[in-house]
Amino acid sequence: MICVASCAPAPLVPIGQQHSFNAEKDEKRLWNRSEEEQARLGASGHIYEDPDLAAYVNEVARKLVPERVQDDMVRFKIKMVKNPLLNAFAYPNGAIYIHTGILTRMENEAQLAALLGHEMTHVTHRHAVLGFRNLQKKTAIMATLQVAAIPFGVYGSVATLLGTVGGMAAISGYSQEMESEADRVGMAMMVKAGYDPSEAPRLFEHIKRDIEEYKIKEPFFFGSHPKINDRIESFSHILESEYSGQKNGKDEVERFAEKVQPLLLDNAFMDMSLGRYGPAQRAVERFLRREPRSARGHFALGEVFRQNNGAGDMDRAEQEYKLALEYSPSYPEPYRTLGILYYKQSRWKESERMLDKYLSLAPSAPDKGYVEQYLEEIKAKTGGGG
User: Fold this and answer.
1) Closest CA to 251 of 198, 325, 192, 182
2) Beta bridge partners of residue 3, listed in sequence order
3) With contact defined as beta carbons under 8 Å apart, do 285 and 231 qualify?
4) What residues contact 42, with CB distance under 8 A and at least 6 apart?
5) Quick one: which of 279, 385, 297, 374 has its CA closest to 336?
């Protein structure tokens, strides 16, 4: 448990509300440590590389930057973390990281703007240095990160890469007062940029439904049921008290859907690896609504059914794999998966045909030896005649 002293730290003037910005000594140390943590994260292989999506997310962020905040004060840079767990966090130097998991839960650009506005406010209002000035037993953060990482394997391991600065932002968050300030100022930023403020609480309502429906328990800030409830209540209160009746903002549903489309399948496979088949299925079906003839999309849906293995799921999986091959006969993966599925069902001839086809399409496949072993076993069972 991270302990915070009861007294509030001395206030700091937000970045942009003075003629120039000069970081204080302890703040400079935090910025330096942030750069070290970011370098470690960048070299870890956890960054999701999609130049088009990255450019789009950064474009949305630029619309939100307050006019008085100049690049020589703080330069915002948004990156995506290849991780299905629900989170986003900001370093005090303006680097903001968004997990792919929370991006795929969004429905439109206004919801993205709400999340970015919240994180950008943590930066401009210097919440990191205020939080650290009040934080006791800083080494407890690392212990918390270690424990948080355990149940989630490679996706939990990102927590230990963050260190103390990123760990506080990504897992514990800041005081209730600072989080509420980030909600309020962030919403003002999205409204000034022309977005519909009613989309802010909706984002977190979607996340809450996921957490409750699939009994998700995560270590990160936005994967925490109590903290999500706090965000919903905070945004709903701000909406009612300050933006009541304001419904003429934009949401940019189509533009957002186009940009996030490739990510839906990538993140669905990550969710599957954690056994989270409900969120994975919803993401794949959302993908297929825009690209109904996508072979990879139907293969992914087949994988959801096969791995979930509920009543009737194997029949559904077979149908999806066949659709994938109908739309792309040269796509190797469905042949391999169907071949192994038929093998387990003792459908020897069909299994052999599918596995042979897979190897003809992917002669250098990394699992070639594994597939050849299946073929040898089929020949042994059938006397070599299939």
Assistant:
1) 198
2) 136
3) no
4) none
5) 374
Provide the 10 A C-beta neighbour count for residue 157. Answer: 15
Q: How many domains does the chain contain in total? A: 2
Segment 182-238, tens digit of pLDDT: 999 999 999 999 999 999 999 999 899 888 877 777 878 898 888 999 999 999 999
Distances (CA, A) of 109 to 150, 196, 207, 249, 284: 33, 10, 16, 11, 20
| Measured distance CA(91)–CA(278) in Å, rounded | 32
- Phi, psi dihedral angles at 4 (to 5 degrees): -125, 135
Candidates 72, 116, 66; CA nearest to 93 is 72
Question: Does 225 share its domain with 367?
Answer: no
Q: Which has the minimum average pLDDT: 87-96, 99-108, 152-161, 359-368?
A: 152-161
Domain that holds residue 37: 22-242
pLDDT tens column, 39-71:
999 999 999 999 999 999 999 999 999 999 988
Residues 119 and 223 in one domain: yes
- 69 contacts 15 by C-beta, under 8 angstroms: yes
Token output for 129: 């240095």
Structure tokens, 31: 């910025």
